[in-house]
Every structure is written in C-alpha cells, then in structure tokens.
UniProtKB/TrEMBL annotation:
Name of the protein described by the UniProt record: N-acetyltransferase domain-containing protein
InterPro entries for this protein: Acyl_CoA_acyltransferase, GNAT_dom
CDD domains xref list: NAT_SF
Highest taxon of source: Bacteria
Residue ranges constituting the N-acetyltransferase domain according to the UniProt record: 1-168
Listed Pfam families: Acetyltransf_1
Amino acid sequence: MLIRSGICADADRVFALVRASVLEEQVHDLNTLEDLPTREHERKWVEMLEQAPEKVLLLAESQGDVVGFISFNNGHLKRLAHQGEISISVKQEWRDQGLGRQLFLALFVWAEKHPRIEKLSLQVVATNMRAIHLYQALGFVEEGRLQRQVKIAEGQYIDLVFMGKWLNRDIK
C-alpha cells in the first residue's frame, strides 16, 4: 500500500472512487448521484488542493489503483485558516482493514509539518457508527450535532455530527 500526495493526473480516479462510494453507501454519504461534481469540477478541486501549501489530497494506492483518499481543506479567511475540513473515502472492499486509520495517520504527519494548521474538523452522519468509532479512537471529539439535518427520504432524517481534533500544539 502506497500513500502519496494526489496530483491533477489523479482526478479521474478520485472521481471514480467518489462515484462508487456514493453508489455503495446510500445512507452514510451526504452526496447523492445528482449532487456529484462533474469530472471538470473534480479536476479543479484536485488541482486546487495540489497547488495550495496548506491543503492536501492524500491517496491510498494499491497496484496502481486508487483505493482511498483523505483531503484537508482549510479556510481562505485568515481567522479560519488555522483549521479545516477533512473528507475521506475508502473503497468498500478495502474497509475494515485499517486503511482509513492509515490515511488519517498520514494526514496527521502532514499537518504537523504545517504550523498554521491547529485543528482538524469533519462531519459524519450519526448512523455511521463505524466511522464515528474510528474518529474517536483517533482523538476526535463531538463538538456539535444538527438534529435531523440530513433528509434520507420523505419523513426520514438523520442527525449530522460535527467532530474536531486539536493538534498537539501550544494553544494560546
């Protein structure tokens, strides 16, 4: 397993992974097929992450196949640049094998090299207990919850949980 920085040339493979994840997850993913970005939008997103010094896309690759990714995107506003949002996706057949944990650990190593980054944040649907347990094991704590924020179907809602992790830095 190779974990490396994503580049523009990876955009189509990232797009395919996201599309497959949406098809497989149904309930745990916030996106629907109608919400997915176009390939061009995905290319621009990967390019933006590649070129910005305090943003990153890390890919997990096995035998040339992208099997997972994690991204970090901090705010462009000065007062929000110390923190940012994480997004993660792992191919279904690679889950429950420690790949998500490996991607997070690689992100933590990357974040430690960027002194401005102090806090990592993410959102997860409350029913995705496998993910929540992983995030808690990695030091994330629940910071808030929006009740019935995600509408799955008519009359069927799920809470959206906000979680954060402060990096081991002197917070002043």
